[in-house]
DNA sequence: TAGGCCATCTGGTCCT
DNA sequence: AGGACCAGATGGCCTA
């Protein structure tokens, strides 16, 4: 497999060619990792809120502010709050991946045998934007 | 089997 | 006070 980011020569690319028609993405494969978001959204995070507590950390291992030497307030959360935070984080990562999928569809690729990884997508997008900018500036 | 990629969990920090 | 964001750790899956 060639190095997609470093080997792609955009000067050889022309708009409206098949190059600009990226292969269908695999946004739903990934071993079912894009699980049913409806179930995630259906979860009622609000119920996870309760009489939670912050605690002023008093242990010796408590973090210390980088700027000041005073002990920092350490957040102590219940397991229910932790679960709610996990759900929020999953939703956040899901929306991030959706954005990556949208970007993948905008970035021209060769008939690629596999989906671009996130880092490949970003690098290719950078190159593509630079290429298009160059075209605009030279016209 | 090693390395790459990804999802998930987790705790810390920032922001409202 | 709590949600958003971030980065590190971990484990699973896939491919060369």
Automatic annotation (TrEMBL):
InterPro entries: bHLH_dom (IPR011598), E-box_TF_Regulators (IPR050283), HLH_DNA-bd_sf (IPR036638). The lineage of its organism: Eukaryota, Metazoa, Chordata, Craniata, Vertebrata. PANTHER family: BASIC HELIX-LOOP-HELIX TRANSCRIPTION FACTOR, TWIST, FER3-LIKE PROTEIN. Residues 80-132 form the BHLH domain. SUPFAM superfamilies: HLH, helix-loop-helix DNA-binding domain. CDD domains: bHLH_TS_FERD3L_NATO3 (cd11415). It comes from Cirrhinus molitorella (mud carp). It comes from the Eukaryota. It holds the Pfam family HLH. This is BHLH domain-containing protein.
